[in-house]
Design goal:
Layout lengths: L2 E7 L8 E7 L2 E7 L12 H4 L14 E4 L2 E4 L2 H19 L4 E4 L6 H13 L5 E2 L7 H11 L8 H5 L3 E5 L3 H4 L1 H13 L3 E5 L12 E3 L6 H14 L5 H7 E2 L1 H8 L4 H8 L3 H11 L5 E5 L1 H4 L4 H14 L9 E4 L6 H6 L6 E2 L3 E2 L3 H11 L12 H9 L5 E5 L3 H4 L3 H10 L2 E6 L11 E4 L8 E4 L4 E5 L12 H11 L11 H11 L8 H6 L4 E2 L25 E2 L18 E6 L15 H6 L4 E4 L1 H7 L6 E5 L4 E8 L7 E5 L24 E7 L3
Parallel strand pairs: 6-7, 6-16, 8-9, 8-12, 9-10, 11-22, 12-13, 16-17, 17-18, 23-27, 24-26
Antiparallel strand pairs: 1-2, 2-3, 4-5, 4-18, 14-15, 19-20, 20-21, 23-28, 25-26, 25-28
Helix pairs in contact: 2-20, 3-20, 3-21, 4-14, 8-11, 8-12, 8-14, 11-12, 17-19
This protein binds ligand MGD (2 copies), iron/sulfur cluster and molybdenum atom (MO).
One ligand MGD binds next to helix 6, helix 13 and strand 23.
Length: 682
């Protein structure tokens, strides 16, 4: 019996905690805490305490091909040939823009890098991933106003802040270790916690001030806070004078957003808006962090601009003890974006439309030219499939049939495809619709690097043997690329070799070499321009990375959500996550202990709303929107506002949600739509 402990990075959220996997003869046998890991010092939230999904009998073990009588097992050789020939067929018949590629924030940097490279060398920028449903607004807006889309500093800076504002996020359930080790420890030292959101979630339970706003009214509230901060002279004058551009334009817009006027829009009492403004402005060392409550709106981009500007008035940039930005969700969503698994960006955030940047990467890859037209984003890939423009789709490590808002349309789009290949560790709802299913090794059965929310790049080692014939995504991508005739551009066999190329292509990763990374527990933060550099923790200490070197103010106005309640659909529906379930529940749903404790969805409904409909706790009701119907159990709580229903989306609630898009970033409005509640059984 060979027992081993191997250091890995948690496969769930963007906090990037370290742990050990215990293996016996190459099979998963439990975990051990890693007390030396700088991010979590041994702490873990419930999910990675039980990784028994790795041993699940449901794991995909062999490549599968759809036939009239269902899926049948085929060899790897056949599978690779089939995938390559079907992709080539579509390419030859319709051109490269009939192909779509969906990369994965669950996969390593090296794997995402290879998938986007494959798409681009084949001639299309139709490559995207779940960041589109998540932090694309953060990416675009922070890029615009500060020049860098990532978090401005580290979790250590959050814990050294004197005021921490958590806006549209519930880290107590979604980033528990960040909440426990950093946010609550700051609070124990005397830092003030301000929480903004429509539900009194578990994070709000700890707040000194909780601003409970109506969904979709964030800009109005942010503008009112800025109104008080400017009118009462509470802003950081020196910072604004030296480092900010566009202050005068801002005054013109925020002057009408008085706390009294905004109370009527967002429902937060004006005295509380004033109190929050004074609390925030009491320090120049504060953090302002947000996630899905801010980005998943048709105004997601503008929401982020408003919050980033609020932080600029307070001077919360460029020094230790400040941290501003969107808390990255998936374990490697920061990395997948850095690698260019995005329709508009090549690796290192080089715009596909930037001729000289594109030419540099083309020459490093040894190709004459790369496509210069912005590709289709994730929701648009499915829309274009529905109208017959996307003909073949390669999905690696995503489950859009459950995760895309207005998911019935995704199924319609997929049914129109000529060819779908899905590469996953389980037979997901999306894989069931595929022509070919490829069995992937899970993260602990392979190795490579992940980048957490702090820009911390970390190596995760191989601890286990993959089940059956499952293979690492990296190996599968390389085989398909070679079969497509691209062997010249894919001369690798290991993740280290791919990371070495990334070191050459992405300047901020230049010093993050495989050798260094494998030696340092806790990894290296980018930007790290050379092998002598330790990486940079606090960004913007000198200037911002904008053309003028200053923070660029863009004033923004309140705009209501795309769909508001009316007589037919009188309630507001929003969606949330719970601590024990992760996304489409493929992994947590098969982890025995976790799945037992969080078995199904419960819709949160205010007791007064429930009374009006004559429904009580535990009763199953039907929720209906213009897009679909969903049966769900009722849980009454005054944590939500009257007439707002909040449903966790892990169990399929996206048949209800709205896919109206933020025009700047194409992110769907998963967080607000109109719905009605139907009591069942008379
Ligand atoms: N357990 C668990 N943890 C996870 C995940 C998971 O699935 N499960 N997923 C990971 C990923 S990818 C992500 S992106 C993060 C997401 O992390 P969070 O953003 O924290 O997750 P959510 O629960 O979707 O949304 C957060 C809050 O937004 C609020 N909200 C809704 N509408 C509005 C609004 O209009 N304005 C404001 N201000 N707030 C609003 C909701 O009340 C909710 O409490 O979590 C990561 N961590
Ligand atoms: N209504 C509503 N909808 C939402 C959200 C919301 O707040 N509300 N949030 C959105 C957000 S923020 C996000 S990030 C998306 C997430 O959406 P998805 O990324 O589609 O969701 P996941 O369930 O994380 O899908 C990951 C898939 O990868 C597989 N997998 C895991 N490890 C590996 C591996 O190593 N290799 C391969 N090939 N596969 C692997 C898993 O089994 C799973 O099927 O959902 C979005 N959808
Ligand atoms: S906080 Fe995130 S990274 Fe840390 S253990 Fe929990 S899910 Fe994993
Ligand atoms: Mo996310």
């Amino acid at each position: 019996m060979v027992e081993k402990l191997t250091p890995v990075i948690c496969p769930y959220c963007g906090v990037g905690c370290g742990l050990y996997i215990k293996s016996v003869n190459g099979r998963y046998a439990g975990i051990e805490y890693n007390y030396d890991h700088p991010v979590n010092k041994g702490s873990l939230c419930p999910k990675p305490n039980d990784l028994s999904f790795l041993n699940s009998p449901d794991r995909l073990r062999t490549p599968l091909k759809r036939s009239e009588s269902g899926f049948k097992e085929i060899s790897w050789n056949e599978a690779i040939k089939e995938v390559a020939s079907r992709l080539k067929e579509v390419l030859n018949k319709y051109g490269p823009n009939a192909l779509g590629f969906i990369a994965s924030a669950k996969c390593f940097n090296e794997e995402n890098y290879l998938m986007q490279k494959m798409a681009r060398i084949l001639g299309t920028n139709n490559v995207d991933h779940c960041a589109r449903l998540c932090h694309a607004p953060t990416l675009a807006a922070m890029g615009r106003v500060t020049g860098v889309s990532a978090l401005t500093a580290s979790f250590e800076d959050v814990s050294n802040s004197e005021v921490i504002v958590i806006w549209g996020s519930n880290p107590a359930e979604t980033y528990p270790v960040l909440m426990g080790r950093y946010i609550l420890s700051a609070r124990r030292r005397g830092a003030k916690l301000v929480v903004v959101g429509p539900a009194r979630n578990r994070t709000a339970w700890h707040a000194d001030l909780f601003l409970q706003l109506k969904p979709g009214t964030d800009i109005a509230l942010a503008n009112a806070l800025m109104n008080v901060i400017v009118n009462e002279g509470l802003y950081d004058r020196e910072f604004v004078e030296k480092r900010v551009e566009g202050f005068d334009k801002l005054i013109g817009v925020i002057s009408k957003y008085t706390p009294e006027a905004v109370e009527g829009i967002c429902g937060v009492p004006s005295f509380l808006i004033r109190q929050a403004a004074y609390t925030m402005a009491s320090t120049r060392r504060g953090s302002l962090l947000w996630s899905m409550g801010v980005t998943q709106h048709i105004v997601g981009f503008r929401n982020v601009i408003a919050l980033a500007t609020l932080a600029a008035l307070l001077g919360w940039y460029g020094k230790p003890g400040t941290c501003v930005g969107g808390l990255r969700g998936q374990n490697n969503v920061q990395g997948a974006c850095d690698m260019g698994a995005l329709a508009e960006f090549l690796p290192g955030y080089v715009k596909v439309t930037d001729d000289s940047g594109r030419a540099r990467i083309a020459s490093l890859w040894g190709v004459k030219e790369l496509p210069s037209e912005v590709g289709l984003t994730l929701p648009c890939i499915f829309r274009e499939a529905e109208v017959g423009k996307i003909k073949a789709l390669y999905v690696m490590g995503e489950n859009p049939v459950i995760s895309e808002p207005n998911s019935n349309h995704v199924v319609d789009g997929i049914k129109k495809l000529e060819f779908l290949v899905v590469q996953d560790i389980f037979m997901t709802e999306t894989a069931r619709l595929a022509d070919i299913v490829l069995p992937a090794a899970a993260w602990a059965e392979k190795e490579g690097s992940f980048t957490n929310s702090e820009r911390r790049v970390q190596w995760s080692f191989r601890a286990l043997d993959p089940p059956g014939e499952a293979r690492p995504d990296l190996a599968i991508l390389i085989s398909i690329a070679r079969e497509l005739g691209l062997e010249r551009y894919f001369p690798y066999s290991t993740a280290e070799e791919v990371l070495s190329e990334i070191n050459n292509v992405i300047p901020s990763y230049a010093g993050i070499t495989p050798d260094r990374l494998k030696k340092v527990v806790g990894g290296i933060l980018w930007p790290c321009y050379s092998v002598d550099s330790e990486g940079v923790r606090v960004l913007h200490t000198e200037g911002f990375r904008t053309p003028s070197g200053k923070f660029m103010i863009i004033p923004v106005e309140h705009q209501p959500p795309a769909e508001l309640p009316d007589d037919e659909y009188p309630l507001i529906l929003t969606t949330h996550r719970v601590v024990g379930a992760f996304h489409t529940n493929t992994m947590t749903g098969r982890a025995r202990l976790v799945a037992k404790r969080w078995p199904e969805a419960e819709a949160l409904i205010h007791p007064a709303t429930a009374r009006r409909y004559g429904v009580g706790d535990g009763e199953v009701v039907k929720l209906v929107t213009r897009r679909g119907e969903y049966l769900v159990k009722v849980h009454t709580t005054d944590d939500v506002l009257e007439d707002v229903i909040s449903v966790p989306w892990h169990w399929g609630a996206n048949v209800l949600t709205n896919n109206a898009l933020d025009p700047e970033t194409m992110t769907p409005e998963a967080k607000v739509c109109a719905c009605k509640l139907v009591k069942l059984g008379g």
